[in-house]
Amino acid sequence: MPPALIAVDWGTTRLRAWLIAADGAVLDRTASDDGILAVPAEGLPSTLLGRVGPWLERNGCLPVAMAGMVGSRNGWVEVPYVECPAGIPRLAAALTRMPLGDGIDALIVPGLITRDADGTPDVMRGEETKIAGAGLDDGVVVMPGTHGKWARLAGGIVEGFATFMTGELYAALTGHTILGRLAEDPDDSAGFSRGLAASRRPGGLTHQLFAARTLVLAGDMPGTQVRPYLSGLLIGTELDHGRALAAGSDLVLVADGAFAESYGAAFAALGVPVRCCDPEAVFLRGLARIVAAA
Amino acid sequence: MPPALIAVDWGTTRLRAWLIAADGAVLDRTASDDGILAVPAEGLPSTLLGRVGPWLERNGCLPVAMAGMVGSRNGWVEVPYVECPAGIPRLAAALTRMPLGDGIDALIVPGLITRDADGTPDVMRGEETKIAGAGLDDGVVVMPGTHGKWARLAGGIVEGFATFMTGELYAALTGHTILGRLAEDPDDSAGFSRGLAASRRPGGLTHQLFAARTLVLAGDMPGTQVRPYLSGLLIGTELDHGRALAAGSDLVLVADGAFAESYGAAFAALGVPVRCCDPEAVFLRGLARIVAAA
Predict the structure, then answer these.
(1) Residues 6+ apart with CB under 8 A from B47
(2) N or C: which end of chain B has fewer CB within 10 A?
């Protein structure tokens, strides 16, 4: 099957691109560390052409569609957020066209913005594309990460979402606090379920975090369980609040690798059924759907 | 009035010492950056003599009493924690005597350990001495800090306590996350009450933290309010959980400077009356009481 689309996931630290057939099959792929923070704004078009130019030369004029932080203030061009509620048709209508040279344009998918009952905004860029590919009409899509997202859908429309700083907090705690200095290699996963259990005990996160230290000091937990304990405590805290938002809906977890394992284990421990989807597969499917709707 | 006691607060980063009269008056004081982490263990006695030696030479044999991390595993000698419930008599009975040279001994106040309903331990070193000086028989003593403590007393006995990592989390968030990079000088205290209000909204701490970023991105909050917002959110979260522990008891806040201001404002916003005590004054009074009870 001939190529039909060039898909690009361009974030702060990575540029990934795929050559996609009309049936969604991946025909070729490329990736580099040319994230938007690594390249000056005026160098972004040539950086992209350097990666996908050979595909364009070989296959003629193909649509090039991008999502992620490339559409942010620090990216190629700031594409305004689309306000929730919003589904694929509104994302498609707001695709932003940028000239890539040689008469070829690149389309940038807008991010989403939502506001809670008090008017506090929350935003996403890139995850809206994964949601579009997750194939969920009614329920909640959970996308773990540095700034993990929980998005609520009804009739295929994203009604709202919430970000949890779980990944970045884990990095800050293990890298820059007394807790991280107690951690020993290799990680002992038994700490994960202890942290998960701690997330349901009184005192809240800022109290239970300190228990990682006192458990080690008192000889009740080895240093090898500190990082898994922190991971379990943070993920358990996220699930506790995220589930209030989800309120019994169908759940789709978009994750692979360590995230799929840890979030999968956390949902299983709570007895909450969840369907797991591969992030790359849903991103590519979502991007194709948004472009097709344009 | 002649000198009656040399009081020493020896923590990880600071050594502070006072020459105290029998009526509690401070006759002289000294302080340095010779925290226990800055001095090798075998150098601790001579470091202390370097600070308080002149007082001993001038006044003859005075009791020298110390509290803080000097009694920890990384300090001069590891003084075992005393288990809660415990009051001044049990702290006095467990004072540990260490030779300081020239026939003079130094007394080290033990820390306290408590366990919650699940057996998870929590510990303090130094705060037990402030509690002893706070003059509260029944109620809760709140001691903000890097690892803030809430201690519950009944009949002058510490029944239990909980640590909140508020101070260290604030440092990690402002110093090592995307939120800190959004913060601008000078701090605008209007952000504090916004963070305090956010601590009572759905989603929990890890969600409301991210709002510091989205509020700035959406133009709803200036960068000068980011650090005060984080402070208000973290303190509000601590108060929310701490008050569950306090359950309507009398509250004493042991704090000065920025801590007294921010925690005082947070309690006032909740309509919770609190008596504020100076940390140095309660430390010195508590140390004198423990030594007198020995």
Answers:
(1) B15, B34, B39
(2) N
